[in-house]
Structures are given as structure tokens and as C-alpha cells.
Amino acid sequence: MKELHILIIEDDESLAQSLQLFLGEIAQTTVSHDGFEGQMLGEEGIYDLVVLDLMLPQVNGYDILKHWRTQSHLAMPVLILTAKDTLDDKVHGFELGLMTI
Q1: Which CATH number do you get for residue 19?
Q2: What predicted TM-score, i.e. pTM, was given to this entire model?
Q3: For the ranges 34-38, 59-63, 77-81, which has the lowest average pLDDT?
Q4: What does the alpha-carbon distance between residue 76 and residue 13 come to, in Å, rounded to a whole number?
């Protein structure tokens, strides 16, 4: 059986650690605390799932998701985890996640 690989991109270190402990029960996890590093890690194309915060240092989550969706080999599922809660924020995230080029 293939082992799952999950990338967690979250700048809140306490939350990232909690996610890593929880998800580490079912998958191998990698954590990044800034957007630039997280984007580069995601481009490796080895992750089965990404947990992505939107408000990150260096590069925000919207830009990361938009960049990934322009790369045909980066179609991994992305779960957006954020404090942003307006309808516009949600719609924008869905639009970026569903982009196909």
C-alpha cells in the first residue's frame, strides 16, 4: 500500500505542529512556515494532499494555488485552512482551486 504524503503550509507554528501530529497518524507529513518554501515544496509533485493557509509570509496562499494550477503536473487536492471567512474569500479560493489551463 502506498504511503500518503501531506504538505502542511501554515505559518502559525503551534497550529502546524498540531496538524502534523494529527495527520502524522495516517501519513508522512512535511511542514513549511512560509509561502515561498511551501510553494517550492509543492512543486516537487510528490504530495497526495496539501493543507494550505492563505495568509503566509513571502507568498500568500492564493498566489501559491494559482501558480500550482497553471502547472499541469500539480493537480493534487488542496485543503484551504484560513481565518478568512467572507463569501468573496471562499469563492476566490474555489475559483483558483478549480482552474484548469
Answers
A1: 3.40.50.2300
A2: 0.83
A3: 77-81
A4: 24
